[in-house]
Design brief:
- This protein is α/β, with parallel strands linked by helices.
- The protein contains twelve helices and 14 strands.
- Helices cover 41% and strands 21% of the residues.
- The strands form three sheets. A ten-stranded mixed beta sheet has the order 2-1-3-12-11-4-5-10-8-9, with helices on both faces. A two-stranded antiparallel sheet has the order 6-7. It has a two-stranded parallel ribbon with strand order 13-14.
- 46% of the residues are buried.
- The structure holds adenosine-5'-triphosphate (ATP) and magnesium ion.
- Pathway: Amino-acid biosynthesis; L-leucine biosynthesis; L-leucine from 3-methyl-2-oxobutanoate: step 3/4.
């Protein structure tokens, strides 16, 4: 059925197409049972796009992504393409999407499902009920700042340089995303930087504070040095609701937070761009945190829940279908509670493969 909910689906490589197959079944279910339909286009990205078009992302696919506004991606990469030149590598396809869609806010939820508390690397009492959202700035900071490079400085010495740069508008737009998320969650934002040693950190703290005063006074704001944040994340993670930080600290803190919750096969993510002033809609890309998992691809044993939850993040953040997202997340929780497990989750009473997990989820949704 035609609808104004357009989506570009890019299953990609390795287990990507396997887990995306289960999302397709959820989309069919929504059409049939909830009368919510999507206009889904499908295309290639990564190694599979290289094999067909000689590039990890064809121009036509890039244009479709911009036209659709919403991309759901599986995974890219694999040993087959490891030795390609830099600009042909599967990962470049994903980077091009992020760059041209101008996705500046990366959302990484770290949520501990009750049924998986035992799978966490931490004590049950520390992680039970954990539900954090990390917002990482994605297009600035030390990853892109100039000058950068390696140079000879004489006497056999060399120098490697990176520069951390942030402007006020870069800080404000990502902080605004964090405040708006907090308003729909626990109403608290922790902003992390190292204002004690970095100028960009001083500016970050000032701008977040100003924006808070101007527009988000109802949200509780706290500032924390990033190193202390890392410690608190392991010591008492439930003190956090939304954490917002720069590109580099966000990379590190979101990986650390992921390990609090158990398996990679459970972790979704979203990357958001600027809101269109006319429609309020944002460019957005949703993808699981895990990669293409070449070691298990083709075996039908990959856990599809990270990708299904990435779809539910799309419902929540791109289509304003929060109630439907809740339904899917709750169904996943119930399925896990009933003991259904893919191999990566261990334990449980009913071992299933990728489609078995999909079956269990659809049954629970019904
Ligand atoms: P990338 O460089 O793309 O991040 P990677 O090799 O670092 O890839 P993954 O591809 O995510 O990481 O795989 C890491 C490990 O986790 C592998 O052993 C893989 O089998 C496992 N894994 C990843 N995703 C899943 C999943 N959905 N279900 C089951 N196991 C998974
Ligand atoms: Mg990796």
């Amino acid at each position: 059925m035609a609808s104004n909910r357009t989506m570009l689906m890019l299953p990609g490589d390795g287990i990507g197409p396997e887990v995306m197959g289960e999302v397709r079944r959820v989309i069919d279910w929504m059409d049939k049972r909830r009368h919510v339909s999507f206009d889904v286009k499908e295309d290639l990205v990564g190694g599979s796009a290289f094999d067909k078009h000689g590039t990890p992302l064809a121009d036509k696919t890039m244009q479709d992504a911009l036209d659709c506004g919403v991309v759901l991606l599986g995974a890219v990469g694999g040993p087959k393409w490891d030795n390609l030149p830099f600009d042909k590598k599967p990962e470049r396809g994903l980077l091009r999407l992020r760059k041209e869609m101008q996705l500046f806010a990366n959302l990484r939820p770290a949520k501990c499902f009750d049924a998986l508390v035992e799978a966490s690397s931490l004590k049950p009492e520390i992680v039970r009920g954990l539900d954090i959202m990390i917002v990482r700035e994605l297009t600035g900071g030390v990853y892109f700042g100039e000058p950068r490079g390696i140079s000879d400085i004489g006497n056999g010495e060399r120098r490697g340089v990176n520069t951390q740069v942030y402007t006020t508008s870069e800080i404000r737009r990502v902080a605004a995303v964090a405040f708006e998320l907090a308003q729909k969650r626990g109403n608290k934002v922790t902003s992390l930087e190292k204002a004690n040693v970095m100028e960009s950190g001083v500016l970050w703290r000032e701008e977040v504070t100003k924006l808070h005063q101007e527009k988000y006074k109802d949200v509780q704001l706290e500032h924390m040095y990033a190193d202390n944040g890392a410690m608190q994340l392991v010591r008492a993670p439930k003190q956090f609701d939304v954490m917002v930080t720069d590109n580099l600290f966000g990379d590190i803190l979101s990986d650390a937070a992921a390990m609090l919750t158990g398996s990679l096969g459970m972790l979704p993510s979203a990357s958001l761009g600027a809101a269109d002033p006319a429609t309020g809609r944002r460019m957005a890309l949703f993808e699981p945190v895990h990669g293409s998992a070449p070691d298990i691809s083709g075996k039908g044993i990959a856990n599809p829940l990270a990708t299904i939850q990435s779809f539910s993040m799309a419902l929540r953040y791109a289509y304003d279908l929060g109630a439907d997202a809740d339904l899917i997340d709750q169904a996943a929780e119930n399925v896990l509670k009933s003991g259904v497990r893919t191999a990566d989750l261990g334990g449980g009473s009913a071992k299933v493969g990728t489609t078995g997990m999909g079956d269990a989820l659809l049954k629970e949704l019904d």
